[in-house]
Backbone:
DNA sequence: CATCTGTGTCCAATATACCGTACATGTGAT
DNA sequence: ATCACATGTACGGTATATTGGACACAGATG
């Protein structure tokens, strides 16, 4: 990632990067793990991981939980995250927008952002459908897999996009290869139209709608999305896009704005 | 602060500790600062702070905001905090408990925890009072200043308590000195009775009620509190304590329990 | 003009953080 | 008993992270 600059083999890693690699890994796994397991799965020296884990435990960044010496993200991270959320106070308005979308469309509505060089669902309202069609909140997903991804990188140049997205993220879950040049074309199209919709490429039965929520810098700081069954999505396309744009307009001042002026 | 183990002068600080010192400092300040200012105010070498800030920026732990090169807590921290909150899923039940307390008492209700070796208000419902009597959410406060503090350290031995709480935290905001031995007596009393109430020692017009929320380890993982005008508090003492205990009982299984079992 | 403060960058010295390796333990399989 | 493996601890060598100080610049102040 960011963290993994793996220039070449045989380099010593910086403690700080290793530490956040551990934290990110635990977040991805969403469960407590033993230091040993962490070391094995992220491919880091065991002694280093033990040392870092102990340091992080002392600072409250990690906590023992789940027994057997397993550790998970700690309370301090919750406090820091709450401070961020309080400063860039998008949560309240975001929930309102999702609520509104849910009422108007009865479909699954999501608020999405970049997490480093991947995509993540920050908040979600499940639709009224009897079956559940959605990614989990907080999971990082390759940018090219998502409709929102086309919008979230649109402020970068072609070359920057290719540098930014890890090469292996162009491989789809079914093993197919997505041509990066094709992706770029879609990015530019999404940029021009201010929206992107497609039949999901990670499953075979949903249609996805995404519109940008522009921050103060003028480009997409986040997206609002709908994930719908294919027939419903295509049948209600105009209505859904109208709802999304209206909801996004209501948010357009919120992200990256301080609560206390 | 917590992180500062300052054994003696003249020691090199570990990057990780320094980094989290920076993060904690920004959280306390609740505003974006320039690296230079951070270095000056936490008493760290400028060159170190610049290097660390740049590293943290690259990882998304810090973000530029506020212009002029100022930095504040970053989006990644929000994601990590959200993962913590999702794992130890106390938020929903916590809000319900505060809601209930607010309805029953019309007073300011708080959910509080330890943040390292200090006390912090995690969530709060303002009371119906025309005036506002409360600490800000997310600020760290010396443990001895608060009613909850008596409960949150009760699982420690006398000596552990004295080691745990920074000596200067026994000095009250008005300059008075709180005798640690006296504090210990109150801790043991609170432990026996399963509650603590007093006229606030940080102002002259409120009365505070605190009851423990016990985690799976059996000791106070958090507290529920009411902050009331003195007359009202004393007049409604029994009623308020009853409400608090009921609300705490409703939470007692929640903290430190995994959502996905 | 000179001077001072606030800001950011660059650099070399050395204290030490990272890591490989060995050791100690427990558990389960053969 | 012997092996294999998972887990945690201990320790020394060396690559390097941390740090003080030099440098550059801009704005304010006198």
Residues:
């Amino acid at each position: 990632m960011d963290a993994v600059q793996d220039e070449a083999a045989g380099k010593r890693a910086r403690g700080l990067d290793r530490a956040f690699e551990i934290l990110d890994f635990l977040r991805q796994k969403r469960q407590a793990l033993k230091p040993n397991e962490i070391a094995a799965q992220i491919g880091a020296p065991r002694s280093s991981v033990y040392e870092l884990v102990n340091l992080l435990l002392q600072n409250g960044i990690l906590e023992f939980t789940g027994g057997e010496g397993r550790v998970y993200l700690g309370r301090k991270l919750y406090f820091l995250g709450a401070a961020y959320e309080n400063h860039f106070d998008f949560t309240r308005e975001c929930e309102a927008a999702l609520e509104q979308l849910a009422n108007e469309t009865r479909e699954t509505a999501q608020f999405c952002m970049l997490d480093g060089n991947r995509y993540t669902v920050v908040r979600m309202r499940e639709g009224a459908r009897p079956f559940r069609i959605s990614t989990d909140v907080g999971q990082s997903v390759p940018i090219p897999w998502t409709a929102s991804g086309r919008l979230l990188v649109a402020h970068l140049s072609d070359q920057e996009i290719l540098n930014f997205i890890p090469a292996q993220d162009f491989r789809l879950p079914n093993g197919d290869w997505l041509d990066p040049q094709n992706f770029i074309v879609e990015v530019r199209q999404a940029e021009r139209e201010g929206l992107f919709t497609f039949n999901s490429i990670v499953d075979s039965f949903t249609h996805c709608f995404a519109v940008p929520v522009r921050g103060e810098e003028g480009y997409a700081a986040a997206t609002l999305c709908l994930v719908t069954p294919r027939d419903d999505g295509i049948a209600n396309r105009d209505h859904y896009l109208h709802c999304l744009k209206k909801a996004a307009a209501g948010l357009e001042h919120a992200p990256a704005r301080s609560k206390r002026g």
Remarks:
- The two ends of chain B are 35 Å apart (CA to CA).
